[in-house]
Amino acid sequence: MRFTPAAILLATVFALSASSSMGMKAETAAGAAPTVSRLPAQMAAPQAAQWAARGAAAYDTGDYDTARNAYETALLLAPGDPNLYFALGKVARAEKRPGRAIKYFDDVLRLQPENQNAVLQEGLAMMDKGAIESARQTLVQLKTLCKTNCAVAEPLATAIAAGPPKIQTADAGGSGEKAEPVARP
After folding, report:
1. pLDDT for 181
2. Which residue from 39, 36, 5 is spatially nearest to 20, judged by alpha carbons?
């Protein structure tokens, strides 16, 4: 009775260690370094491309919810693909979610630090959020990346020059008259 938990633990360890070696190639048994078969990742790439294509089609039609879902599914199938993070960032900007867009563009820059388009889009998302000083720093970073004749930075420079986004209030479209309170019974 006292040995039952220990026996169960040992049986579990042996079962897991035996099943974990099933995905290794045959040369591992000969003393070579263990290499795990990459077949599932290779099979997932075409599926990820199909989901990314669905996302692009949905984005082009303005169906951002479907586009986001398709890109997220593609990202599950191809984790670490900077193009998918970039596409998700563009969807987030289109959905007026600049904080989420900045996160996705940061993910692209983590994977590809020299990606000028990601730096540009991140700066534009910062402007959408109203973070002008951060957008200025991003503009400096972008100009540092492109070194000479930085045409990529023009949209961000224009957005910074235009100033923060206009915030629409509830009475912005009114005639300026105050509404009378309604008496409640």
Report:
1. 54
2. 36
